[in-house]
């Protein structure tokens, strides 16, 4: 079967803007077709193939549904693999990160659930802004460095969003 592009698996053109509801629906449809249970009575080779296709489909879906992972994948398709750990040569954003971290620590210390909700909305807004900025420049070779900088920021905000959800769950208990 080879290794087709994640976008091609879902019948999509490589683009940052993806209809997530449509992606999820297509994923469910494709997952049913290659689900290993459907191949219980098949030959060992067909079972192994179904398992591989199912794993590949799952990986493609996880990549495309996450904005930072989708962005990294698009840059990789253009021949630009970004190292996973990158020093952020972005002093303004470094300062912003420190402020966000301090604010999150304060919210944790004060167990302020309402404050966490407000923080989460601001974070979501910052993520949407980065997504829009990346969508506008990722495919323009002259803006490659900007696209890479935006991806690094997206990765940080994604990680921060996970921490916010974890804090929310702890405060909810």
TrEMBL record:
Xref: Gene3D superfamilies: DnaJ domain (1.10.287.110), HscB, C-terminal domain (1.20.1280.20)
Question: What is said about its interaction partners and assembly?
Answer: Interacts with HscA and stimulates its ATPase activity.
What InterPro entries does the record tag this protein with? Answer: DnaJ_domain, HscB, HscB_C_sf, HscB_oligo_C, J_dom_sf
Give start and end of each J domain.
5-77
HAMAP family listed in its UniProt record = HscB (MF_00682)
Q: Which UniProt keywords apply?
A: Chaperone
Relate the protein's function as given in its record: Co-chaperone involved in the maturation of iron-sulfur cluster-containing proteins. Seems to help targeting proteins to be folded toward HscA.
What domain of life is recorded for the organism?
Answer: Bacteria
Q: Which family does it belong to?
A: Belongs to the HscB family.
Protein name, entry field? Co-chaperone protein HscB homolog
Gene Ontology terms: cellular component: iron-sulfur cluster transfer complex
| Gene from which this protein is expressed | hscB
| Molecular function GO labels | ATPase activator activity; protein-folding chaperone binding
Instruction: Tell me the GO BP annotations in alphabetical order.
Output: [2Fe-2S] cluster assembly; protein complex oligomerization; protein folding
């Amino acid at each position: 079967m080879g290794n087709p592009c994640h976008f091609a698996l879902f019948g999509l053109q490589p683009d940052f803007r993806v209809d997530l509801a449509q992606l999820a629906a297509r994923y469910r449809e494709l997952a049913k077709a290659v689900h290993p249970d459907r191949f219980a009575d098949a030959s060992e080779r067909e079972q192994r193939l179904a398992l591989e296709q199912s794993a590949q489909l799952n990986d493609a879906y996880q990549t495309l549904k996450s904005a930072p992972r989708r962005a990294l994948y698009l840059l990789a398709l253009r021949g630009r693999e970004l190292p996973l750990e990158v020093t952020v040569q972005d002093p303004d954003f470094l300062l912003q990160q420190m402020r966000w971290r301090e604010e999150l620590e304060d919210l944790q210390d004060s167990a302020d659930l309402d404050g966490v909700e407000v923080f989460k909305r601001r974070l979501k807004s910052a993520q949407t802004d980065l997504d829009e900025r990346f969508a506008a420049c990722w495919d323009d070779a002259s803006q490659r460095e900007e696209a890479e900088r935006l991806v690094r920021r997206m990765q940080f905000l994604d990680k921060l969003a996970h921490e916010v959800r974890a804090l929310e769950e702890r405060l909810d208990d």
